[in-house]
Amino acid sequence: MEKQLEQYKKALKLQNILYLAAAAAVAALIALSLVQVITPAVPNERWAGAWNGFLGGISLATFAIMVYGLSVNLRALRDDQRLRKLYIREHDERAQAISRCAGHMSYWFETMGLLLGVLIGGYFNPVISFVCLGCLMYICLVRLGLKLYYNKKL
Amino acid sequence: MDGDNVKTRIKELRKARKLSQEELAEAVGATRQTITSIETGKYIASLPLAYRISRYFGLTIEEVFDLSDQEE
Questions:
Q1: Complex prediction ipTM
Q2: Which chain B residues touch A94 with a CB distance below 8 Å?
Q3: pLDDT tens for chain B, residues 1 to 72
Q4: Host domain of residue A106
Q5: What CATH number has the domain spanning B7-63?
Q6: How far apart are CA A67 and CA A22, in angstroms?
């Protein structure tokens, strides 16, 4: 277990760098948006303010998630007991089995939902149909790519 | 390793040693929920976890997990 914890410490340190980089990028985005250097490309004046607020909210939430993740990792890196608990929580095999089952099922629900979207949306608006088709193709391609990767890896 | 049913003696062994699920979970590197699920037969432990649990009690896997249903 000690060897795994040492490796986990290294992984957390790398994760912290990624959290920091992402938090800095989002903070820069928020700052640029606040001073209106960048504004959302919404042609409709009525929606521009609301959309700007929506993007600001999403950016702030992303920033908060990054900072929270960073604080959890930093506390774990300072305290061995906390590190062990975090390691067990993240590597618990039942939790991983649940994720695998949920991932497998969600793939079918997503593809079936999008397929319905392609078919039904096509009767109302071709844009909806094309968007659903694009998402469906993306999900299927990602799935295929991952299957090929894990077929070689396992 | 889920779907089949494997009976275990974990609860009995744990009670004999006055161990809580949390303590056993911590010792074998799993969560309390995983130990609960294994004890109730909802989840079948992987080979490494089964080995760690058995080794913790100083027994073999066969002495902790009843694998007789798997012999067919």
A1: 0.84
A2: 30-31, 33-34, 37, 43
A3: 444 678 899 999 999 999 999 999 999 999 999 999 999 999 999 999 999 999 999 999 999 998 877 766
A4: 93-154
A5: 1.10.260.40
A6: 10
